Queue: 2 jobs
Job 1
Amino acid sequence: MISLSERKDLIRAALGEVPLDLKIDNVQVVNVYTGTVEFGAIGIKAGRIVTPYAADYKSAEIVDGGGKYALPGFIDTHVHLDSTLVIPENLSQLLLPRGTTVMLSDPMEIANVAGLPGFKALLRSRDELSYHIFLEVSSRVPTAPGLETTGGELNLQDVCEILAWPEAVSLGELDPSKVLGMRDEYLLKIEAAQRLGKICNGHAVGRVGKELVAYACGGLADDHECVDYEEALSRLKLGMAVLIREGSTERNLDLILNGVVRDGTYSHHLMFCTDDKHPDEILEEGHIDYMVNRAIELGIPPVQAVQMATINAAKHFRIEHLVGSLSPGRWADILLAEDLQQIVPGNVFFKGKQVVEDGRYIGSNPEVDYPAWLYETVTLKAGKNPADYILEGNGKRAQVWVIDLFPDQIINTKISAELEVVEGSVIPDPARDILKLAVVERHGKNGNIGITFVKGFGLKNGALASSIAHDHHNIIVAGTNDRDMAACTAAIEDMQGGFAIASDGKVLEQMALPIGGLLSEEPVEEIINSLEEINRVYQNIGGTLPAPFMTISFIGLPTVPDLGLTDKGLVDVLKHTLISSFVE
Amino acid sequence: MISLSERKDLIRAALGEVPLDLKIDNVQVVNVYTGTVEFGAIGIKAGRIVTPYAADYKSAEIVDGGGKYALPGFIDTHVHLDSTLVIPENLSQLLLPRGTTVMLSDPMEIANVAGLPGFKALLRSRDELSYHIFLEVSSRVPTAPGLETTGGELNLQDVCEILAWPEAVSLGELDPSKVLGMRDEYLLKIEAAQRLGKICNGHAVGRVGKELVAYACGGLADDHECVDYEEALSRLKLGMAVLIREGSTERNLDLILNGVVRDGTYSHHLMFCTDDKHPDEILEEGHIDYMVNRAIELGIPPVQAVQMATINAAKHFRIEHLVGSLSPGRWADILLAEDLQQIVPGNVFFKGKQVVEDGRYIGSNPEVDYPAWLYETVTLKAGKNPADYILEGNGKRAQVWVIDLFPDQIINTKISAELEVVEGSVIPDPARDILKLAVVERHGKNGNIGITFVKGFGLKNGALASSIAHDHHNIIVAGTNDRDMAACTAAIEDMQGGFAIASDGKVLEQMALPIGGLLSEEPVEEIINSLEEINRVYQNIGGTLPAPFMTISFIGLPTVPDLGLTDKGLVDVLKHTLISSFVE
């Protein structure tokens, strides 16, 4: 919110009674309200835009915009900050050179680990960052109550408390099963959001027909899970906005926008998000800027692509008085770019201060100041002993369920396979790429271990493990043998969270994520180096996936069909129930 | 808000577990989210839309839509309900046959007369009406503190209380002088609205350049006072939506839309309003339907014109989850029309019930139940004696200020004239169409009478008076002589509010508006007949204006340039100060 004295400063500057703080002269203003581009000068006071047509205003400081295009900062409409591996304080240097100034974030990961205190702790530096965080309030912590053990939870009262914060913009991605099952707790969360004037974000993975209609009737205002144009159009037709996603493993942009271009679909209810994107890919490929430029390549007119990345999102989330345009009173978040056909935000201003110069981040990162307990979130009651991973079988062979990965998609397929039983234990078969998959409870609660099998990781020997395992964030480990699986889990306990790879009983590589077992305080470059190194080691032992730790973190999700795995066992997602690992 | 059990009914119907209440089969759905038209069937449950594509749903009742176009109900984005002369309960029969199902209303008139209790009393039947009322919370009651006497006021605390109501969508039209003057009370009202997730409506009459920039910096999100395209474009360029107005006396539609069509201006931030429109004109010319059809005639594509009248407004006011489209979960407010080039909403459904059949209103009007004190709001301490109207002058002639009317505009021009002084009293000159204008305090507070002169009413003899006088709603009276002015005022006291015309000391015609001195409980036809009759009598004594009582009600407004008149005297609007009626 703007304070009364800031508001008065702004009005005084607008009236010309006091000089501007900064004027960016000689720019071509991309005006997302009129859809036009014309020469102007951005006037700034108290961190806000006074006017983008400030040619005749006096200013304490004047910067020559060199005739470049001036655009509003980009908005990522759905992202899990706590899925980037990087703490929010260090994320600026990745986001700002890409022009992203607003992150609409659902920090459900930290909430699953550490509840409301964890949620609040992660947002400590919010006001000091070089980008805005608005909150999509986690609607389902835990995601699958009764089917998984989490470290923390957000109950109805917690959710209502957070929804009332000014930085909360919505109820975050509500799982369809809660709505279609008409469960009071979740319908009351929707009611609370709407009563507080906030929207409700959808998460309608694969839903069609009457289920989709019912979900929309539940009050869900959008969906970021559309994988193609037909799905996107089906949402729009029911009055839901489409948050087009292009993350590390979910890549939906081309298929959706090809249809939009072909049909000339009305675009005001389209916007962009990344959902989950690893830092190395943000660095190399880009962030929302990548989506804007790809949209332009696919045939979306540049100003329209910019509208999708800015005002469309701001209107949908009801924060257009704060961000999303270069209009009076909005935060002075400004990108300068030489070309409007291929937008490279070479110079970026955040709250009126330059934070990117010639593509280089020059802003500051606030000091990290997390509480000690956030570094101590891995407590094992089992999982360090190879015997913990035995799945007992009778006879010589067993018919088991296998989670079959889908390349580039979050969904998986339920298949079955016959495996050997050796000394009473069902054993994986790396020759057919069928590994053992286990989820080890790590919140110190019960020592549960759920076991099943998975196809698609490609390992010939060894194991890999992660303390990021959506959404419960226990330790998930896939391997060719129990000894390496136990070694990985033990390494993660030692690091208090992270990724590990073991082979022949030894840890080959590891990467620490000690903040809640999810995030690292290391500088971004270090994190990217570590991630590249551990991916390389994964390939050395036969791995074939491009982003194995992203994949393993999602493969157990008990809310994405067909199958999930939690510490309590195998989950039939559409039936929302635990099932045996054996085909019966 | 939707209740939990209604929400569940809706979801069950959407899933096909229970039949719909009603299905309107065989319609061409105008989908404002995709901007397309295709065949569908509107499914309805619990008064809400289940889906507009309900062909394969079972329903308790099925109506054949006969291939007609199905559109969402129209939204009037800014209207003073209490300026229609008709009580809200009786307004349905005017609005619904015109397809208006949502009135975003600022009931500032009743608040000026009777404060917060009056405000609440007028909205008593809100939930039983055949149209929705959402509130633009009156930001300035009184409009010109210190310059006028009102019956009631809404202080900061009152405004904050109302803003928190779920039916409140915005802070209502805030006068620029309060923002540019940086007055804490009003800046705090803006802050309260934004904190509660509501927008702030502008009222930027004639403001340009730095004043307009400063006003936008104040947090004002729109303007409904644009008189031409240049003004409209200047607002859009500063990130303000434009509420295009076509009322009884303010007619801005053609000039604005001609520019929009010529330039192909991005239209998502354009919408429609009437502001103030008398019932006879709604009946004859139409309401928002008139604006939609005129827009289409001017070259706006039909679906785009419908978007302006529906979703654009719903998004701007952040009520798109409730109204503005035929999408799941929204109120089932549906218009059926045969032609999309000339939209006549022949059959209208409100909350899923048919309320207009073949152009005729068939809904019910709730019983009127206003408190007794709302019928007793005219208490005079002066004004019934001709001597009360004397403006004392010295010598033979006096140079006085004259409010010169502008045809079809709310603004006026400050001119001066030399008038005769007879027996110490400055007298009007009907030959030059210069009448005396007086405002008589009627709230029983002080007996103030403000006196000046006005040009444009055309009377050759007699006087006309009204207890509707924006925004203070004292009695305003214009006449050729003091005796007839006093007779009019006395007649209005007898009726406890209304309009009167007198000549030769006798009341020729009168029309009672006893609810707060603003509204009549008579049926709409009676009100229109009375209005036509009194207009005819006005013309009989020389009157030349098409809507003289609308004109006289605005001519004293102390917030619209150049001049205003209140019970305290003549007001220089731009200087926001009382001035002498004499040129000094």
Note: Chain B touches chain A through 66 residues (CB under 8 Å).
Job 2
Amino acid sequence: MASLKRLLVGSPIRTERLTQERLTKKTALAVFSSDALSSTAYATEEILLVLAAAYVAPISQADAFSRVIPISIGIATLLVIVAISYRQTIHAYPSGGGAYIVAKDNLGTMPGLIAAASLLVDYVLTVSVSVAAGVAAITSTFVGTRLAWLDNHRVAFCIFFIAFIAIANLRGVRESGALFAGPTYAFIVSFMFMIAYGLIRFYLHPEIVPPPNDIDLTIAEGYQPHYLSLFLLLGAFSNGCAALTGIEAISNGIPAFKQPEPDNAAKTLTWMAALLATMFIGTSVMAHLYQIHPHEHETVISQFGRIIFTGYLGWFYYLVQITTAGILVLAANTSFADFPRLSSLLARDRFLPRQFANRGDRLVFSNGIVLLAVFSAILVWAFRGETSRLIPLYAVGVFLSFTLSQSGMIVHWWKEGRALRNMRASAIDNEAPANVKDVTGIERKTLAQVARLEKGSHWRKSLVINGVGAVATFVVLMVFIATKFIHGAWIVVVLVPLLVLMFLRIHRHYFDVAQQLSTEGLGQLRPIHHEVIVPISGLHRGVIAALEYAKSIAPHHVTAVYVNLDDETTQKLREKWQQWGSGVNLVVVASPYRSLLRPLLNYVDRVKRSSHGEVVTIVLPEFVPARWWQNLLHNQNTLFLKGALLFKRGVVVTNVPYHLEH
Amino acid sequence: MASLKRLLVGSPIRTERLTQERLTKKTALAVFSSDALSSTAYATEEILLVLAAAYVAPISQADAFSRVIPISIGIATLLVIVAISYRQTIHAYPSGGGAYIVAKDNLGTMPGLIAAASLLVDYVLTVSVSVAAGVAAITSTFVGTRLAWLDNHRVAFCIFFIAFIAIANLRGVRESGALFAGPTYAFIVSFMFMIAYGLIRFYLHPEIVPPPNDIDLTIAEGYQPHYLSLFLLLGAFSNGCAALTGIEAISNGIPAFKQPEPDNAAKTLTWMAALLATMFIGTSVMAHLYQIHPHEHETVISQFGRIIFTGYLGWFYYLVQITTAGILVLAANTSFADFPRLSSLLARDRFLPRQFANRGDRLVFSNGIVLLAVFSAILVWAFRGETSRLIPLYAVGVFLSFTLSQSGMIVHWWKEGRALRNMRASAIDNEAPANVKDVTGIERKTLAQVARLEKGSHWRKSLVINGVGAVATFVVLMVFIATKFIHGAWIVVVLVPLLVLMFLRIHRHYFDVAQQLSTEGLGQLRPIHHEVIVPISGLHRGVIAALEYAKSIAPHHVTAVYVNLDDETTQKLREKWQQWGSGVNLVVVASPYRSLLRPLLNYVDRVKRSSHGEVVTIVLPEFVPARWWQNLLHNQNTLFLKGALLFKRGVVVTNVPYHLEH
């Protein structure tokens, strides 16, 4: 076991190396952006899937699908708003401004916990959705080949990739960065080239666009054909909002950046948003120009690639598919960085079991990584590895946490503004010496100093930016819940409050324990009076070792207890005991039903009742066999007795082992 | 769990009731004979199955099947020989003369263990074969009805019945007797009537015999069609010897009889043998007269019953089938009485884990009962509940133990004869006073006394009887192995030596343990010098309780040990410790890899090395949550530490629990 763990995870890393594990901007872009960027691989397709349901409406099929362009532009606008909002957060919270911290600091504990719960749910979904979409990219390349049957083993593929990423993360954050930078940049370059090449070919040779494929309605599961209503358009918009997931990853992960962390993080965020907007709108435009419709066994990207990359560029199709699969599968990595980090924050605040706050052998939060892997694997299995079935659960958590985080920032800036107003009110004029303290001890600034602070603050501008962000994300959240509730969003709506309840319950327990264990008002150590009981199964060296130990604790208060299962054996023991003459009192208790445990426990209870405040110690002789299988040859009475005694108050159990040689 | 056990097994029974649990002759016949008698349900069929393979030979089919009569008479003769032999054993071993005891007493330990191993294997097979045949009797009645599909669920039926019998036995021996007497006597009466009625009808109306059914060769699996060779005849004879299994049950179970045990047991054995011989030969004669041939989905008994019970006696067919099924399923009960009893004997002699020697709540050897049920269920599952596939494994163990038991009896009688000869040689003449001791202290008898003893002994006659028994069973054993080796007997031939090896290995271990634990040469209890270590995770009430306890053991040798995982927290603890000023020395150990266990264990090792012969006690503060799920919220370091310390020599672990309230 131990050596298998070493092989997979590597040797332990010393604690001192903790601060060295930082990421450059380029590596950070790869590690934190893969989730956001990779969503271009499925966001357009998810929009088209909803629009496909309108094909029997009085407008033409092409007309319905053409709505993908305005919808995509709307989503890109939202993306820009959210990205600008998050830049504010990064500067205000340089040590990491996840939705949990921002909401808790500014709105209070409950909103913080709601944000935390929705983020945890969302990280699990990110892993499931990304891995499922990545596997779809791989199986798409086999459409029409002899390997098409691989599509039937999606779930197995997904679980394999989840395990792969989990192990990479258990090895440590820096190694993850190195592992994932290559695929991310390969994806960005090849995807951008595909869009550019697609555009050029379309304007040079518009005749290469094939007639649109037939739409297989079975893939739009859960959607009844109906008119292109506003509800349908909003549903398509909601599905496309999956493109925004992962945009908050950078603001959570600021401490992993090289110094100066906030500046590096903000720049990385801007780059990420620009890349994402370009690639997403590019994909939608291409899908529109080339009249690509969703298909059950092949992704939109794959269909598009097959059309444009022909002849001597045919190999580029495979490159795009492979890099898309690569970034998707690795996108899950964003969550493997964030889920354990958030869990550790929650654990430190006593809302999750404290085991999540511990760094493992390789300086990562191992328990969180393992838990995330398990939950996402279960989800993939339950939804049969199909991306479009997971999407309705996806964006609720993201937009709930966006809204709470942006609302928190509004309060944050408002407080900064109020602080400045107070400072100005109490400021002294410019002539007085700087930094005079007033009667209440508060430092007073000069008017010139206050003016400089006001100039550097921009709190009004920031408040407006985050205000717009909060309203926009809240509206999208409501739209999402309204359009996707029956398709799966309800699961998340139910789950988040349950998680919050769990957090509160756990917190309550830790609070209770801390109170009960508090050393408040405790003085010196009190002396203890002992009463010692040694349960024996006969007279042998193990028993003698236990008796010697017992006598050393309380020379005149040791009693050996023997359970009488057979009168003859008991009589022999009594005789042997007297001959031996150790001076220890031997008590024989009856056992009408041949049970060992019950009579012993009853005897302990009797002794406890008659002892007035003394501590009763049970000294258990225990022999330890040399080989594990030999345990099968001895009854495990000592073990059962230990288990039963654990729940008795005021009873201390001491094991005196006697080691057998062979 | 506990209440489910009560419901199934009943309340515990007090030990004093042990001797009251005795059986009358009539009840004992039901409990111990069901195995032997029930074999009439399949023994004839198994003979016919082998003969069926000869149907393409130059003799007529009817000719081949007619060999069932001489074969059955041969088997019945063998039965008489074995029964008479066992009557000798019963009188010589009134406290229970199983093959294990007889062989061990007279031939030595190894032959005893071989007998024991073969019997254990055989008891498992008895359960499997009987239950499988019982289920076949039930499914036979459904042939040609809508319920014929039940035949596909044989294994499930079998396992259900095994569980049923196991539970009945776990409830206790007397209740078992009451449960099984009815079905056994119902079977004897209805089966005898069937044979008698069949004979009468045949002589009054020979025209009711139908033309023989076609033989479906597929059922004679493993048998290539060939001439009616001597080998084939011996194979048929071997299969039929399954009828003898179970005949030894009474001699093993003598202590369960009412007093005088040997006389009652011997009488019961005679009755059982007479009944068995009559029913077995009767079945074979009927099968011959009515020209019944084996059939895949219907037993021979069932076919016979359908022919003779017509008209207003039609219901009698169902009665016979039901009582046959009943006795077969309950026949397994013989093994449920014998297997645990033999296991307990082996456990008492330290050849099996001592847990098998303990009587459970209901005064039965529960562990043996459970083990038998598990193994026989596995066997039924592996052989798909088909009687004829189990038969080749069956009789090896029986006849091996017969042979060893009879050989042991030969030695027994020879020793008695020698003892009488020695007595006569040293006897004094009739005139001298009786019971004079000679110079060596041996009591000397008068010639008249010796003559009386010689007259009452019959050792020569007994030696001849058991000699004939030993030779006959040995010859059958060889024939069985020769004819059935490739069909499954090899499994038992391999298994028995492995079991004997296991017995010896277990015995060796217990011997080693006894030697190491021997108190030989031990004097008074020696005083102990203590060194106490208290691993702490901080300063709280649980830790204080542990420190108080530690100081009470060794006031000036207590050290608290803290593992430094975080410099800041450690510094705070140091300050708090000094302020508190308990006088206990605080040692902080470093942990570069954030592990708690390793640094603590290393520290314990250092202390152990520097302490010269002192006992190192680890006092572990442990807080016990009020509810089980709260354990999930606390790391289980105490548990891991306990596990790791168990294997360190000279280290005593003391748990000081601190109970949380809610």
Note: Chain A has 23 helices and seven strands.
